């Protein structure tokens, strides 16, 4: 089995998010760079798939040379090789990125080294674009399921599980022929930590460099916005035993108890 997993270099979200003056991007002057949680889960799923079925996982990113830091994290987790689509992708839109990735997948298929699974994060960790995986599937004419929690490969097909979209808590199950495209949602698997031997191996792993032939159409973005911080208030109901009646009153107001 051959698996292609796509990752994106995004600003770390551990601190306060601020925007550039033109509100077109996140100000990265004082933040680090990471792989988004959805894509970390996609990498873990790719590695588990080849551990179960044999084969290899290839990690791909579209971006500058600095993106190799995040690519090598995926290599350290267990991916065998990597592809860097060299681009200053700041002004690229989801359609541009999807075309570049689809071109790589199509070239491998034409060379007889096509991928059985193409995995993506469910959405971008910075701009929240929810398009690339779907667009790649459309370009390649492949079936796609989004919001995937877990999957397993059986007899040349992939069985996919995801949460129902109606909020009922039910699980939806899909069975797709291979090759197929899946977008992975955070939470279905726990990504492993790269081991020391894995990091050493990642430094030596081959990286294929691709110059894309994409006529960039841009992202059509008007601006980004940061949601206002939610204010919180604290009400002290009392201290010690004298607070008991106030707690009961509060639970009654919330409909949790009846007298």
Key descriptive features of the protein:
25% strand; alpha/beta; two-stranded antiparallel sheet; globular; 259 residues; nine-stranded mixed sheet; Rossmann fold; 28% helix
Structural class: alpha/beta
Main β sheet profile: 9 strands, mixed
Number of helices: 6
Backbone CA Rg: 22 Å
Q: What do we call the CATH homologous superfamily?
A: HUPs
Helix content: 25-40%
CATH topology: Rossmann fold
β-strand percent reads 15-25%
Order of helices and strands: EEEHEHEHEHEEEEHEH
What does this protein structure show overall?
It contains six helices and eleven strands. The chain has 259 residues and is of the alpha/beta class. It has one domain: Rossmann fold (3-Layer(aba) Sandwich). It has a nine-stranded mixed beta sheet, with helices on both faces. It has a two-stranded antiparallel sheet with strand order 2-3. The longest helix is centred in the N-terminal third of the chain and has 17 residues. The radius of gyration is 22 Å and the shape is globular.
Entry summary:
The chain is an alpha/beta fold and 259 residues long. 28% of the residues lie in helices and 25% in strands.
């Amino acid at each position: 089995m051959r698996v292609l997993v796509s990752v994106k270099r995004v600003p770390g979200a551990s601190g306060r998010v601020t925007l550039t003056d033109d509100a077109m991007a996140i100000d990265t002057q004082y933040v680090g760079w990471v792989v988004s949680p959805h894509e970390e889960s996609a990498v873990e799923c790719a590695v588990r798939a080849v551990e179960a079925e044999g084969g290899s996982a290839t990690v791909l990113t579209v971006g500058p040379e600095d993106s190799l830091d995040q690519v090598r994290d995926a290599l350290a987790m267990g991916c065998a090789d990597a592809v860097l689509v060299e681009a200053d992708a700041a002004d690229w839109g989801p359609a541009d990125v999807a075309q570049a990735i689809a071109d790589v997948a199509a070239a491998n298929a034409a060379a007889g080294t096509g991928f059985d699974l193409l995995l993506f994060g469910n959405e971008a960790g910075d701009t929240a674009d929810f398009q690339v995986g779907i667009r790649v599937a459309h370009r390649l004419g492949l079936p796609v399921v989004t919001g995937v929690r877990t999957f397993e490969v059986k007899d040349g097909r992939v069985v996919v599980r995801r949460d129902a979209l109606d909020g009922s808590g039910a699980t939806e199950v899909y069975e797709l022929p291979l090759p197929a495209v899946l977008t992975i949602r955070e939470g279905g698997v726990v990504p492993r930590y790269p081991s020391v031997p894995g990091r050493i191996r990642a430094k030596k792993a081959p990286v294929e460099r691709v110059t894309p032939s994409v006529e960039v159409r841009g992202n059509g973005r008007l601006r980004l916005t940061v949601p206002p911080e939610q204010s919180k208030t604290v009400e002290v109901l009392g201290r010690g035993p004298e607070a008991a009646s106030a707690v009961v009153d509060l639970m009654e107001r919330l409909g949790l108890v009846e007298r």
